[in-house]
Amino acid sequence: MRIGIIGAGGMGGAIARRAALAGATVLLADRSEERARQAAERAVPGAPGTVRAVSVSAALRPRLIVLALGWQDGLDLVESRGPALADRTLVDVSVPTGPDAVAGGVRRLADTAPAARWVKAFATADACALFSGVVDRQPVDVFVASDDDQAKVTVIELVDRSGLRALDAGGLDNARGLEEMARVGQQLRERLLINGGWAFRFLPGW
């Protein structure tokens, strides 16, 4: 599997790590070539897959692309590259804040590039938890929402192969709920002065 990741910050580097552990070939792009190179080096130790720092154009070629960007940066990218994204599976990990939190999040991205297959995932855990893969010795849960079943299954399989636990979170309308969960998690981390990673975990009573 080939995966493009746009953004080599904390989230982009963590997702590159999980994809490499899943055995994928990862093309990682960032405005800073040096940051992309360093993130690629951190992502590969002990992993069967590979991570290579590339240009944004190269990272947009795979069928599966992760937008590890802030919401506005993601929107700007989608607006400028819309035609090139047709039939690609695009995974949005952003957590809009302020007026953007009400404006529509991933739904607005999807309206901007309606020919793409949109997925919301990875938002309900921070970069530290995703990179390590565990919180309190438990695998991190990744909630995956999409209206496109094929795209959703592709992301779920990637997450499961990476050592995390993927959970089908329903359609893209539920992305708003995942973003709200993420905002609560971020606030709790600040209020509780958490130094390590945090993640939401689903604990059903069977």
UniProtKB/TrEMBL annotation:
Q: Establish whether keyword Oxidoreductase is in the entry.
A: yes
Source organism, top-level taxon = Bacteria
Protein's UniProt keywords contain Oxidoreductase: yes
Q: Which UniProt keywords apply?
A: Oxidoreductase
Q: Where is the Pyrroline-5-carboxylate reductase catalytic N-terminal domain?
A: 2-96
GO terms for MF: oxidoreductase activity
Q: Which Pfam families does the UniProt entry name for this protein?
A: F420_oxidored
Q: What is this protein called?
A: GriS protein
Species this protein is from: Streptomyces marincola
